[in-house]
Amino acid sequence: MSEEIRLVIWDLDETFWHGTLTEGGISYSDEHHNIVVELAKRGIMSSICSKNDPDSVQRILQEKGIWDYFVFPSIDWSPKGGRVSEIIRRIQLRPETVLFIDDNPHNLQEVLSVNPAIQVADEHVIPHLLVDARMMGKDDTVLSRLKHYKILESRDEEKETFSTIEGFLKESNIKVEIIYDVENHLDRAIELINRTNQLNFTKQRLPENQQESRDILLSQIKQAFRYSGLVRVSDKFGDYGIVGFYSLVSVNRISYFEHFCFSCRILGMGIEQWVYQSLDRPDLHVQGKVISDVNSPAHIDWINQEGRDAATETTTHKKSIYIRGGCHAAGLAHYLKQGRNHVVEEQNFCRDGVGIRIDHSQLFRDAIYGLTDERLEWISQLGYRREDFKTQFNDMTFDVYVLNFSVDALYATYSYQDNVIRYPFPECRSIMTENFSREEYHDQNKFLDDIFRNAASGDFHYHSPDPSYFENCLRDILSRIPEGAFLFILLGGEKFLNRENELETVLTHIPFNQKIIELITQRKNSFPLQLDDYVRDKSDQTDREHFGRMVYYRIYKAITDIVSSGTTPTPTPTPTPTPTPKSTHDAQPATAMLHEA
Questions:
Q1: Which terminus of the chain has fewer Cβ atoms in its 10 Å neighbourhood, N or C?
Q2: CA distance readout (Å), 21 to 28, 49, 68, 159
Q3: 585 φ, ψ to 5°?
């Protein structure tokens, strides 16, 4: 079955109009005129490939008010095969989606010989175009698609005046905006996923039913550890609109794209390469044929980022950042890393199928100050290795530090014999709150079974989460953060709107948060950030310990505002719906996922 048509290339003499312009004049066809206009309202473009005098043709079509409905017209006396090929190249479509109409069989065969995949027809097809199944297009009565191609046409004409493509791109003032509020642009994201081909790298299509697609995509982008964005592009020639979409899954230091797709109207601008590089080159399993290599060129210096880098962001863009923690730090790091070359991120990770935590304050203190061989010997019985305490914290002085110690309020710790130093189990599971020094615990994973047996051996002593012990660790950590550097500590969430629409208080975090606030408010440029303050509605929080991506984006914006101005912006949470009052109680520790970052 033939593909849907996205471009019609018209011959003029005895095709678009009746008669031959150079042989006694023509009879203009209002019917064909109206067909071109209607096609444009369906998002289907029209072009011209005619053997004629270009000035005469342009004058006639301008007088009829139709000239601007044609994109990339080719009007001269040379053979049509190569010219049609050039139109397709310039408009950046696949030949399969192009229909060439000409009354001359020789011209049709010539065009086919040069463009074997193109669709061709003689003039008798014209009365049937608007009812042809290939020509249904989609509603575009505002002619947005035509406007985009006219911008592309102007851009292409100026490009020809430059000796190098890089020189042209640098003079084009290309601006990219990443839109994280995907929910309000679902239909455009779906269109990009389902309709793009040449620059759709993953080709993970959604159902044709629009509502079903909306439901699926909405559920995807709200998942934890998934980061999505729409790409909007403009340059000095005009606004190309939203031309790209990505959905990135990031778990345990492994990142991969589920969706990575762009409109072909930005082909050759380096947009897809720039987005890929700004996201730190996650795994990209290219499906099918694409006409761009995201790894080339290696360096793009002609694109400016709008929105995120505007105003206050220009102050923070070049600052070095150190970020360490668990889920919250991982969610925030996604936004802090984009477009920067000076971000060090230290996160929980996975080893041999087991999630390894490094976000406890005791582990960070040891990473900073170092471990003795004696201590390493006994904590290895809990499953730690020396490499788990490597850090880049000591390698340089950073401008901004972002830390998160929520796990201190949730996990039990163990000391060895009479040693006062305490360590949690490394495994990322809620069961680590249990007292394994009293009873034996068996797990199918040998790693876990071994450390549970060690904890039950009698040499280890159990300790419940202790705010005072945390305070001592935090004091030691803060003493190594240079004066004048910006410090942000993400506080554990103290509120949770549960499935019954009841507002619960998570008491486990409160005393630990108080210790953080007491210590860092004495320091210059140090700010506690309460996650609860950046929750706008129920969908922003998946459980007591996990928040949606937009919460971290709002915190990211707050950090850039603070670094720029030096003052704390007032958050404006608007939680909805109104919760049902509920008695305050001590919430149970959150059930952390095995694959938690």
A1: N
A2: 10, 14, 20, 32
A3: -145, 165
Instruction: Name the token pair of 140.
Output: 């575009």
Cβ neighbours of residue 491 closer than 8 Å, sequence gap 6 or more: 406, 509, 513, 516, 517, 528, 529, 530, 531
**Residue bearing tokens 């020639």:** 237
Of the ranges 114-118, 198-202, 405-409, 541-545, which one carries the lowest mean pLDDT score? 541-545
What would the two tokens of residue 436 be?
A: 């394994």
Residue 183's contacts (CB-CB under 8 Å, 6 or more residues apart) are 218, 221
Query: Of the candidates 400, 433, 409, which has an alpha carbon nearest to the alpha carbon of residue 516?
Result: 409
Alpha-carbon span 553 to 559, nearest angstrom: 10
Instruction: Please return the burial class of 199, using the count of CB atoms within 10 Å of its CB with bins 0-12, 13-18 and 19+.
Output: buried
Digit-coded pLDDT (tens) for 347-390:
888 777 677 888 999 999 999 999 999 899 888 888 889 999 99
Token pair 């005393």 in the structure block, residue: 511
Residue 377 Cα to chain centre, angstroms: 43
Neighbours of 83 (CB within 10 A): 20
How large a percentage of the chain has pLDDT more than 70?
A: 85
3-state secondary structure of 201: coil
Task: Give the DSSP letter string of 372-404.
Answer: -HHHHHHHGGGT--GGGG--STTTS--SEEEEE
Detail the DSSP E strand segments found in 280-435. Answer: 303-306, 321-325, 343-347, 349-351, 354-356, 400-404, 413-416
Q: Is the bond preceding residue 577 a cis peptide, omega within 30 degrees?
A: yes
Give the whole-angstrom CA distance, residue 288 versus residue 278: 24
pLDDT digits (tens, 9 = 90+) for 45-89: 999 999 999 999 999 999 999 999 999 999 999 999 999 999 999
